[in-house]
Amino acid sequence: MPGTRIARTTWSSVSRRPSPTRDRGIPEATVARLPLYLRALNGMAERGIATVSSEDLATAAGVNGAKLRKDLSHLGSYGTRGVGYEVEYLVYQISRELGLTQDWAVAIVGVGNLGRALANYGGFVSRGFRVAALLDADPEVVGDTIAGLNVVHIDELETVIKRRGVSIVVLATPAAAAQAVCDRVVNAGVTSILNFAPVVLSVPDTVEVRKVDLSIELQILAFHEQRKADRESGGPLMAVDSQ
Amino acid sequence: MPGTRIARTTWSSVSRRPSPTRDRGIPEATVARLPLYLRALNGMAERGIATVSSEDLATAAGVNGAKLRKDLSHLGSYGTRGVGYEVEYLVYQISRELGLTQDWAVAIVGVGNLGRALANYGGFVSRGFRVAALLDADPEVVGDTIAGLNVVHIDELETVIKRRGVSIVVLATPAAAAQAVCDRVVNAGVTSILNFAPVVLSVPDTVEVRKVDLSIELQILAFHEQRKADRESGGPLMAVDSQ
DNA sequence: GTGACTTTGTGCATCGGTTCACAAAGGGAT
DNA sequence: ATCCCTTTGTGAACCGATGCACAAAGTCAC
Question: Could you say which nucleotides of strand C lie within 7 A of any protein CB atom?
């Protein structure tokens, strides 16, 4: 299947121009941590803290100081040497960089247990995001009101996406339906998808897919848990080495 | 705070012995992909496929062939050159490596919308995992039956963990309660935690914490989405470079 | 048994990300 | 204005992960 490509989290061809000062190509790892910093900073702003050092912010966000400084340096030079970062200002800069100064219309497809939970989860749709539509294929739930929104039939997908300006879609459908819905969503012009279904989605590489997979996380935990158990009973020097 | 350490996903001191053949230290990146391979293999087994090449399995799992082969080579030499991998056998080997041959008792703490969804989500508790307890602080929901389980008051946390042999805890509490519950869970001897609350948990570094954070995923999508928009209106050569 | 063909397993170059360590840059006291 | 102290921003070494490319190892046909 040469037409489609497997979803990658990174970009195939980011502009690799060696810009002199403000290289706009922010490393993916950094982008993934910016929301963490933002959350910590918001907490500080609420508690009335005006200024913060890289070291303090780093521990609040659960990372190391040097990493935080390097991350922030990718956005620009927003600190004052000898003092630290001004909290309000940094909140604004990170918000702007993440695109949270505009607001994003999100559609949730699949209103089962999980979809319902997401729709109701007020905290996760924080500043910048707004649940604009709920869709489902089951005639039983179509027409219901969940979190103040009317559930629309999946047939209306394309119409709803266009009319309500949806640019991010959350997939909470059963695994079997996910790829088909995904295809339609992509055809409707959406290029950002958050996928909760336990399948590997196949999309053109202009589309960004992020995956949240509960079962995988559990399996990773189980791996480490088992290893700890092995360690205890076997001891580190009793490694079996069954060659 | 020198006593506790921020949760890292990796191990501080994995056995770094240069073992000759079967190095038991499997790279973290590999571990994270094994569940993906396992899922693809299970699908193939169901469809009656007996044997599969690295290239086919790789595309099914959404990775590149060389990576898959290197990943599998960390577990041992389970393929046959010129033929491929026997599906059933590989399923068993990966399951064993991930610790899915035993079953793990999981407790879910916090039975709000999300906790309820997780409890009911039959698919996610796949082979190897079993929801053994539901806990909550709200007297309103304590005593309810959800997914066939009685919701227990959080006061019973330590007792329930011991009595039901819980070794993995899923935190689905409000952010404000998460750290306190986490401390109690850790004190009760649990060393594997899956955290859905939007906070950075502080735990001793013998404890493995994995985080699932919907809001962060959305923000990452927004970042890329904004960048695409900038690209279109600005054009790649109109980079502002506001030095 | 031999040769052609297929596919694994891995050495090696490369790349992105992390961490260290320090020079540069500011603030504040005297 | 000068000196000392604090903290940022970053060059450079390091480390793990990725991907290429190929030799080794097996199957199958005859």
Answer: 5-11, 16-21, 24-27
- Which is it for the CA torsion A113, A119, A122, A128, positive or negative? positive
Please give the model's pTM, rounded to 2 decimal places. Answer: 0.89
Bases on strand D under 7 Å from any protein CB: 5-11, 16-21, 24-28
Query: pLDDT tens digits, residue range B98-112?
Result: 999 999 999 999 999
* Contact present, B103 and B129 (Cβ < 8 Å): yes
Q: How many Cβ atoms sit within 10 Å of the Cβ of residue B201?
A: 22
Segments of chain A assigned E as strands: 5-6, 51-52, 79-80, 84-86, 104-109, 129-136, 145-146, 149-153, 166-171, 192-195, 202-203, 208-211
Tell me how close the Cα of A185 comes to any Cα of chain B, in angstroms. 15
User: Residue B119 pLDDT more than 90?
Assistant: yes
Counted residue by residue, chain B has a size of 243
* A83 sits within 7 Å of strand D by its CB: yes
- Which residue, among A122, A123, A114, has the nearest Cα to B117 in the 3D structure? A114
Q: Which of B214, B216, B207 is nearest to B7 (CA)?
A: B207
Q: How does strand A79-80 pair with strand A84-86? A: antiparallel
Which residues fall inside 7 Å of strand C, measured at CB?
A 27-30, 63-64, 66-67, 69-70, 80-83; B 53-55, 65-66, 69-70, 72-73, 77-85
What pLDDT digit, counting tens, does each position of A175-210 carry? 999 999 999 999 999 999 999 999 999 999 999 999
Task: List the one residue out of B36, B14, B6 whose CA is nearest residue A227.
Answer: B14
Residue-wise pLDDT for A17-26, tens only, equals 333 334 568 9
Mean pLDDT estimate for chain A: 88
Name the residue in chain A with its Cα closest to that of B241.
Answer: A22
d(CA B46, CA B69): 23
Q: Which residue is nearest to nucleotide C17 (CA to C1')?
A: A29
Hey, are the CB atoms on B7 and A62 less than 8 Å from each other?
Answer: yes
